[in-house]
Design brief:
5 helices; mainly alpha
Length: 140
């Protein structure tokens, strides 16, 4: 994936809260993942882990992008988050993760989804408030 960065490091005030929430959820996942049987840890566990890392990576990369590019990557992030939720549910249904741990992680993933959606909507509304010009050069 070719992502052009315009800053080298985000300012602390510019780092979205959702990234911190994702890091916390990933830490919870790591503890649950360690208890998977070896075969499942290398199969379903690896799939969840990989998708979770993509969510973290895409969110982090989004910080540096221009709004139009940010929306595209946030859409990909939301899809990856949905993958994490689906595979996490599959792990729980197959008794690979305890119900209490699954519940805590799932609630966290739902909150992350709301935050990502809100971030995306905020960017979209800012882009829509910019007044486009029509073909004659007049403001429409």
């Amino acid at each position: 994936m070719n992502i052009s960065h315009h800053n080298s490091n985000p300012q602390p005030s510019k780092v979205p809260m959702v990234l911190s929430k994702e890091k916390e959820a990933y830490q919870l996942w790591l503890f649950a993942h360690r208890n998977f049987p070896r075969i499942e840890r290398l199969g379903l566990g690896k799939k969840i882990d990989s998708s979770f890392l993509d969510v973290l990576e895409f969110t982090f990369a989004s910080i540096y992008l221009h709004p139009e590019q940010k929306i595209i990557l946030l859409n990909r992030t939301i899809v990856k988050l949905d993958h994490v939720k689906f595979f996490m549910q599959l792990a729980w249904e197959n008794k690979l993760i305890q119900t209490d741990k699954y519940t805590v992680i799932s609630k966290s993933l739902e909150e992350i989804g709301r935050q990502l959606g809100g971030w995306k909507k905020g960017i979209e509304s800012k882009l829509q408030t910019k007044t486009p010009t029509d073909k004659a050069g007049e403001i429409s």
